[in-house]
C-alpha cells in the first residue's frame, strides 16, 4: 500500500513538471491548447515507476482559434476605422477582411475590392430606380446624365455624387455634344472604352467608366448603372439654360429642365436671355410640357385625345352639336396643358410662354425663339419597363 502511494505521487509530480514546462514554451503570438502539448510531454517524460496506475495520456485533437495578440484591441479598432474611411464598406466586411489578412490594412483593402467587384456583378440585375441627374454646362452647350442606384440613401453618398458629376463633365467634353440643334440622346454604349478622371479621396485617378461604376457599386453595396444622357447645343447667337429640382449640391438633382434660346442679332447682349432662360427651365420642370408648339403635336396624339374627349362628352347625354363644342373646348385646354408656347408662365400666370418670348424680343431688340427644350426625371419609365419589358422611355424633348 505505501508503494502504491509513492508510485502515484511520483506520477503526479511528473505530470505537473511537464505542465509547467509546456506553459513556459507556449508561443507569445497566440492562444493554444496547452493541454495538448503538456499531455505529449508527460507521455515522453516517463517519470515514476511503472505501476498499474501510471497510465499514459493520449493526445486528443483540440480545436483552437487563433487571435493576434500582436495587434492590441485599440489598434484593431483604429484599423477598422481607417479601412472604413478608405473604402466606405460595411463594418462587418471591413473587420472580416482585416482578420483574414492578419490586420494588414493594405492587403485587406485589396481583398475588399475583390469581394466588392464580385458582389457588384451579382447585384447588377437588381432594380435601380433611384439616383441623380447631373448637368455639365458651358456657354452654348449642356449635357445631362442619369446615374441610377437602388435607394435614395446611396444617392446622397458623396462618392456616388462625385461619379455622376464626373460622367457629366466627361460627356460634355465629347465630340457628340457639339453642334446639336436638338436634344441628342446617348446611352451606355457612348461610354464604351472611354476613360474618366475621378477626383475623390476614396476613389481617384483615371480609369474606364465601366470600372469606375463597378468600383462605386462595390463601395456602396448596391447596383449602380448609367442609364441615359442628353446633349443640347445652340448656335453662336444663343444660350443654354438649365434648372435642377431637389438639388443636393450644384449640378445635381432629381428633375432637370433645359432650354435653348436663339436670337437673330449676334451683337445682342445675352444677359437678359440667361435670366429669362433660367425661369423657362424652371417652368419646364413644373409644367411638364410635351411639345414646343401646336404644329409639332402629332396627328395621332390629337385624334387619340379627341376620341377620349368625345366619349366623355357623349356620356353627358347632350346633343351632337353641344358634344362637338365641348370636344373643341376641351381640346384647346389640352393644348394649353401640353404645348409649351401655349402654357401659362408659372412665374406669372397672366402671361403665356409665347408672351414671355415676345416681351423678351422687344427688350433686346431682336427676335428670340426657343430652339429646343428637355425635361428629365430620375427613374421615369423604369417601373413600366420592368413590368412590360418594353423599350425604355426616353425624355420628353421638343
UniProtKB/TrEMBL annotation:
<dbReference type="GO" id="GO:0003746">
    <property type="term" value="F:translation elongation factor activity"/>
</dbReference>
<dbReference type="InterPro" id="IPR018101">
    <property type="entry name" value="Transl_elong_Ts_CS"/>
</dbReference>
<comment type="similarity">
    <text>Belongs to the EF-Ts family.</text>
</comment>
<dbReference type="GO" id="GO:0070125">
    <property type="term" value="P:mitochondrial translational elongation"/>
</dbReference>
<keyword id="KW-0251">Elongation factor</keyword>
<dbReference type="Pfam" id="PF00889">
    <property type="entry name" value="EF_TS"/>
</dbReference>
<dbReference type="InterPro" id="IPR001816">
    <property type="entry name" value="Transl_elong_EFTs/EF1B"/>
</dbReference>
<comment type="function">
    <text>Associates with the EF-Tu.GDP complex and induces the exchange of GDP to GTP. It remains bound to the aminoacyl-tRNA.EF-Tu.GTP complex up to the GTP hydrolysis stage on the ribosome.</text>
</comment>
<protein>
    <recommendedName>
        <fullName>Elongation factor Ts, mitochondrial</fullName>
    </recommendedName>
</protein>
<keyword id="KW-0809">Transit peptide</keyword>
<keyword id="KW-0496">Mitochondrion</keyword>
<dbReference type="InterPro" id="IPR036402">
    <property type="entry name" value="EF-Ts_dimer_sf"/>
</dbReference>
<dbReference type="InterPro" id="IPR014039">
    <property type="entry name" value="Transl_elong_EFTs/EF1B_dimer"/>
</dbReference>
<keyword id="KW-0648">Protein biosynthesis</keyword>
<dbReference type="GO" id="GO:0005739">
    <property type="term" value="C:mitochondrion"/>
</dbReference>
<dbReference type="InterPro" id="IPR009060">
    <property type="entry name" value="UBA-like_sf"/>
</dbReference>
<feature type="domain" description="Translation elongation factor EFTs/EF1B dimerisation">
    <location>
        <begin position="142"/>
        <end position="380"/>
    </location>
</feature>
Amino acid at each position: 500500500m505505501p508503494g502504491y502511494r509513492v508510485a502515484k505521487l511520483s506520477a503526479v509530480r511528473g505530470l505537473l513538471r511537464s505542465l509547467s514546462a509546456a506553459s513556459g514554451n507556449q508561443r507569445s503570438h497566440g492562444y493554444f491548447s496547452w493541454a495538448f502539448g503538456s499531455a505529449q510531454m508527460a507521455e515522453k517524460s516517463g517519470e515514476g515507476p511503472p505501476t498499474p496506475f501510471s497510465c499514459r495520456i493520449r493526445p486528443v485533437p483540440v480545436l483552437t482559434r487563433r487571435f493576434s495578440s500582436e495587434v492590441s484591441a485599440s489598434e484593431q479598432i483604429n484599423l477598422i476605422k481607417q479601412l472604413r474611411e478608405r473604402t466606405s464598406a460595411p463594418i462587418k466586411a471591413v473587420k472580416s477582411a482585416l482578420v483574414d489578412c492578419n490586420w494588414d490594412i493594405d492587403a485587406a483593402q485589396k481583398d475588399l475590392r475583390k469581394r466588392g467587384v464580385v458582389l457588384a456583378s451579382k447585384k447588377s440585375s437588381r432594380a435601380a430606380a433611384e439616383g441623380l441627374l447631373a448637368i455639365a454646362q458651358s456657354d452654348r452647350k449642356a449635357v445631362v446624365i442619369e446615374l441610377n442606384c437602388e435607394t435614395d440613401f446611396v444617392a446622397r453618398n458623396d462618392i456616388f455624387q462625385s461619379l455622376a458629376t464626373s460622367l457629366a463633365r466627361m460627356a460634355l467634353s465629347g465630340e457628340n455634344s457639339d453642334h446639336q440643334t436638338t436634344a441628342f440622346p446617348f446611352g451606355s454604349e457612348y461610354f464604351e472604352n472611354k476613360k474618366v478622371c475621378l477626383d475623390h479621396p476614396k476613389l481617384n485617378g483615371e480609369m474606364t467608366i465601366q470600372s469606375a461604376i463597378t468600383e462605386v457599386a462595390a463601395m456602396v453595396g448596391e447596383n449602380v448603372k448609367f442609364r441615359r444622357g442628353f446633349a443640347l447645343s445652340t448656335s453662336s447667337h444663343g444660350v443654354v439654360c438649365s434648372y435642377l429640382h431637389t438639388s443636393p449640391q450644384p449640378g445635381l438633382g432629381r428633375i432637370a429642365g433645359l432650354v435653348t434660346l436663339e436670337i437673330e442679332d449676334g451683337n445682342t447682349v445675352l444677359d437678359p436671355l440667361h435670366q429669362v432662360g433660367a425661369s423657362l427651365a424652371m417652368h419646364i420642370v413644373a409644367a411638364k410640357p410635351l411639345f414646343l408648339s401646336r404644329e409639332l403635336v402629332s396627328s395621332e396624339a390629337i385624334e387619340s385625345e379627341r376620341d377620349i374627349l368625345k366619349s366623355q362628352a357623349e356620356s353627358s347625354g347632350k346633343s351632337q352639336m353641344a358634344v362637338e363644342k365641348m370636344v373643341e373646348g376641351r381640346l384647346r385646354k389640352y393644348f394649353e396643358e401640353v404645348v409649351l408656347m401655349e402654357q401659362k408662365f408659372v412665374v406669372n400666370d397672366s402671361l403665356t410662354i409665347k408672351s414671355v418670348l415676345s416681351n423678351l424680343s422687344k427688350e433686346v431688340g431682336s427676335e428670340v425663339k426657343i430652339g429646343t427644350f428637355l425635361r428629365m426625371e430620375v427613374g421615369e419609365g423604369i417601373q413600366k419597363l420592368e413590368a412590360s419589358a418594353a423599350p425604355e422611355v426616353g425624355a420628353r424633348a421638343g
